[in-house]
Design goal:
Largest sheet: 7 strands, mixed
Bound molecules: pyridoxal-5'-phosphate
Structural class: alpha/beta
């Protein structure tokens, strides 16, 4: 069985990272003349003259408590998109290695691979948007280093069947990355609980969706200790700003509010779904474990453009495989959902 280190790009196996000025000194108080900061202070009223904690220790301790995992298994990034890029850069040799994706799915996996000159193998989901395990297994080869699986999936909204992911975890020599950006809305168990069994399993979550902190740019990666060690090795030293660390820490104390948002959004989703079901041009509303609905309309392109003319912006997904005629609709406030339905009914009256 291949280990994390065997998968790493060869030039990184004995890579010497930048050692920050504070790495050697663990104390709190001291005369810090090591990092060329402004010793006199900051033009800002907050003490921002000092570099932030390069390991984000406090934040990881708090996240560890919430997620039931030790801080050493957490890696924090500038949004999940940062993680996707770092994973590809760490494990995929440009021009040689490949990633596997299972469309229709989140677009950044492919964009990041393209940016890094890493090949992409695509194995379509089945008609009901589940993993096509026999085809995935058949398409695997030595060059494939990472499989990205999004669950609940964007843009389809469904969770992937657990047993299918187990089969892949047991068959594949590389990293299985499960993107759980929408897990809070689903009520399903996170794959974080399975990390002890699979050292090459990587789970991505984010504060951008359920927590309502998209502007903060904070993504969480959960994995084995050896995986996180690799990520720490290659990250820029001060990758998460002090401002973001402080604000995220304060926000994590409001987990009840996050849970209340999730409940409310799920109720609003059900009522939006009922309204859309009674709309004459709706062909299909796909089951969703996320905070959005994928909806197939008759005349979807016209509806999409009409809504834009009414200042209502949906996400056109009709160009994606298996998503012909589909738009993705984020659950809005009660009022926003009403405005959407009113505009749709106006379009009908035309
Ligand atoms: C929104 C989204 C993300 C992006 O997360 P950031 O932390 O905001 O970068 C990642 N994955 C999926 C599937 C998403 O839909």
């Amino acid at each position: 069985m291949k280990k994390v280190n065997d998968l790493l790009r060869s030039h990184l196996r004995d890579f010497l990272p930048y050692s920050t000025a504070r790495d050697e000194f663990k104390g709190k108080e001291g005369v810090f003349l090591d990092a060329n900061e402004n010793s006199l202070g900051s033009v800002h009223q907050r003490p921002w003259n000092r570099y932030p904690d390069p390991r984000q220790h406090k934040l990881k301790v708090e996240l560890g408590i919430i997620k039931g995992i030790q801080p050493g298994q957490i890696f924090i990034g500038n949004g999940s998109d940062d993680h996707i890029d770092l994973l590809i850069r760490a494990f995929c040799e440009p021009g040689i290695d490949q990633i596997m994706i299972v469309p229709p799915t989140y677009g950044m996996y492919k964009v990041s691979a393209n940016l890094n000159n890493v090949g992409v193998i695509e194995v379509l989901l089945t008609e009901d948007f589940q993993l096509d395990v026999p085809k995935i297994v058949a398409a695997l080869n030595e060059r494939v280093k990472i499989i990205f699986i999004c669950s609940p999936n964007n843009p389809t909204g469904n969770l992937m069947v657990r047993e299918d992911i187990f089969v892949i975890l047991n068959h594949f020599h590389g990293l299985v990355v499960i993107d759980e950006a929408y897990i809070d809305f689903s009520g399903a168990n996170s794959w974080i609980n399975d990390l002890t069994m699979f050292p090459k399993l990587v789970v991505l979550q984010t504060l951008s969706k359920a927590w309502g902190l998209a502007a903060l740019r904070l993504g969480m990666l959960f994995a084995s200790l050896e995986m996180v060690k690799v990520m720490n090795l290659i990250k820029p030293p001060y990758n998460i700003s002090g401002l973001v660390q402080n604000e995220a820490l304060a926000a994590l104390a409001k987990i009840e509010l996050k849970d209340r948002f999730v409940q409310q959004i799920n109720v609003l989703k059900q009522s939006l779904e009922r309204s859309l079901r009674s709309f004459a041009l709706t062909i299909e509303i796909y089951p969703s474990d996320a905070n959005f609905l994928l909806v197939k309309f008759k005349k979807s392109a016209e509806i999409f453009h009409y809504l834009i003319s009414q200042n209502i912006i949906l996400r056109d997904r009709s160009q994606l495989v298996l998503c012909q005629g589909c738009v993705r609709i984020t659950v809005g406030t009660e009022d926003e959902n009403k405005q959407l339905m009113a505009a749709l009914n106006n379009y009908l009256k035309g």
